[in-house]
Amino acid sequence: MMPSMETILGWAIWFFAGSILVSLVRVVIGPTTADRMTGLNMVSAQILALLVLIGVRAGRANYLDVALVYDIFGFIGILAMARYFGKEHM
Amino acid sequence: MSWIAILFLFLGVVFGIIGNLGVLILPDVYTRLQASSTASTTSVFSALIACMIVAGWSPMTGKIAVIALFFFVSSPISAHIIARYAWHREIVPWRRSFAERQVLREESDDD
Lengths: 90, 111
Fold this sequence. Notes:
The complex is a heterodimer. Helices cover about 80% and strands about 0% of the residues of chain A. By secondary structure, chain A is an all-alpha fold. The longest helix of chain A has 26 residues, at about 35-60. In chain B, helix 1 (about 1-25) packs antiparallel against helix 2 (about 30-55) and helix 2 (about 30-55) packs antiparallel against helix 3. The chains are: A mainly alpha, B mainly alpha. At the A-B interface, helix 1, helix 2 and helix 3 of A face helix 1, helix 2 and helix 3 of B.
């Protein structure tokens, strides 16, 4: 008996939620700022996948707009952090 | 059709586990960045392709394609930005021979 597609998407959502928590360990314990930015990059990518999976499981196209805007803001956030912590402002 | 989606979700899970292990275990910023950027890109792409297959031929597929296109552009650029930041902060790349040479040099200084 094969589980339905909704159940399998639910498993994937739970896996990505746990994976985000594991990635947050590097954000907390990272020795340098670049380590923390690496962890944040990974967390934002996995949150993008999580939002898309939730949107497809719910069958609503509105949630995908949230995912796209989250991706854009994650990229701009990394850009701003690299600019702010860089040598020009020290 | 759904078997292909399940296969891509499984691939996403496997690549996610590999990427998390790499980010936790590897010794340096650059090696961690390599593990995180490659593994998270493949993991998220597998999940997005599985979502496109599940959604079928609908407007959702187009939206997911736009998200995948933007992610395909932005993820390597942000990895490059982080590597460039670390390089400008003069973080030395990890090498085993370099570390052993430092230890040997400190021991010879003690003598």
